[in-house]
Specification:
Length: 410
């Protein structure tokens, strides 16, 4: 991430810093609120899965499409939207995406049938992909270089806070007033965030137009490919299991619906801690952070199945799951930015595309396993993929060393 001043094409962005630096705290927090909005909207069906499926007359596996479909669309939007908007001001683009997110949530709340809900979730996918591709790389534009890692961590904290406040609050509201009200409230919140973006962000003109041809060139970098593969494995494994965490928890003895909402809250709080802890470690050494995260995820997800007969063990493992997964987004993003310091927005678009494709793939494969074998079997799939990610991270050091040695001798 530390490009030299006389060679980095990111200098036009850094040159803009003196003016927006004065509004730094509020601008960074507003972008964090944006990521909170899209992630909460994306994950709302997780906490509402049972009531949503019964209300619309579909199976739990079919209801999982409300997570899968936005992920597929978001993966495409993350790559195509930055190309489509090219030199448009990023503040304007973010505001437009949040207005669209508000409309999609209102349509979800009013959906008379499952097909209409899926159509609304397509719009949600466009918003998710666009926001991720743009917001993920804004830390370096809103602060000076020495604070970029901290700003990126704060922006990604919106993801963890979505788990703490968004999904549990949506679950509670769904149980209290019905799942439609959860979407309606998120629609109003997204509209408010659009207003905050317009009021607090400085102008953010694009420094260079992104073209589709830039992505294959970036993928020739071994370190970037390794980072994206880790994203694919960790996120696919996580969402294969976490999308169906409510049905899994419902099998634990003495665990009622009210306690499940509390457990999801505890999971989210642990995720916030994991986000900042993982971000602090990843700012110094992304590989070490991902080694710890991959090992932790593999262990806790694989153990949650056998521990299903114990309330205490299930609670402890769910909290540990939140702690480990909380650092995934910021740590993998730090890896990607470090691997492509001269093409941050294009690398962020690739990161967002792979991340959201993995969400869709995880929800889809989890649904197939849940419907075909049982909801607890998704834990074996999720833990196994996390173990594979651990092997990739461990191998990546050797690949980087070999690449560096070849470059030196070449």
């Amino acid at each position: 991430m530390n490009a030299t001043p006389d060679t980095s094409p990111e200098l036009p962005e850094v040159a803009e810093l003196p003016e927006p630096q004065r509004s730094l705290p509020l601008s960074v927090l507003t972008v964090a609120a944006t990521t909170f909005s899209v992630v909460t909207t994306e994950m709302l069906p997780v906490g509402l899965l049972t009531s949503l499926s019964s209300g619309l007359g579909v199976s739990d596996g079919s209801a999982g499409l409300t997570v899968t479909l936005p992920g597929v669309v978001a993966a495409l939007a993350a790559l195509l939207l930055p190309v489509a908007v090219r030199r448009a001001d990023r503040r304007t683009v973010l505001c437009a995406l949040m207005v669209l997110l508000a409309a999609a949530n209102v349509l979800s709340a009013l959906a008379p049938a499952f097909g209409v809900l899926l159509a609304a979730r397509v719009l949600v996918g466009v918003c998710i992909g666009g926001v991720w591709a743009i917001a993920a790389g804004l830390g370096v534009r809103l602060v000076r270089e020495e604070s970029a890692g901290r700003a990126t961590t704060v922006i990604f904290s919106g993801i963890a806070v979505a788990s703490v406040l968004g999904v549990p609050a949506g679950t509670f509201l769904g149980e209290l007033a019905g799942w439609r009200w959860a979407f309606a409230v998120m629609g109003a919140f997204a509209l408010a965030v659009a207003g905050l973006l317009a009021a607090t962000l400085p102008p953010l003109p694009s420094s260079a137009a992104i073209r589709l041809g830039a992505f294959p060139g970036l993928l020739r970098g071994a370190r970037l490919r390794a980072g994206l593969l880790v994203v694919l494995l960790l996120v696919t494994g996580h969402f294969a299991a976490y999308t169906y965490v409510r049905p899994v928890l419902e099998r634990v003895p003495d665990l009622g619906a009210g306690l499940i909402s509390g457990l999801l809250l505890a999971y989210g709080i642990a995720g916030i801690v994991g986000n900042f802890a993982g971000g602090a470690l990843a700012a110094r050494d992304p590989r070490r952070a991902l080694l710890a995260i991959s090992a932790g995820l593999a262990a806790v997800v694989l153990l949650l199945g056998p521990a299903g007969g114990s309330l205490l063990a299930s609670v402890a493992l769910l909290v540990a799951w939140g702690l480990a997964y909380g650092g995934v987004s910021v740590s993998t993003q730090q890896w990607v930015l470090a691997a492509a310091p001269r093409a941050r927005e294009a690398a962020s678009a690739l990161f967002a595309g792979v991340f959201n494709a993995a969400i869709a793939l995880g929800a889809l494969t989890g649904g197939l396993v849940a419907d075909g074998f049982g909801t607890t079997d998704v834990l074996w799939l999720g833990g196994g993929l996390a173990a594979l990610a651990l092997l990739v991270v461990a191998y990546a050091k050797g690949a980087d060393a070999g690449h560096a040695k070849g470059a030196a001798t070449g």
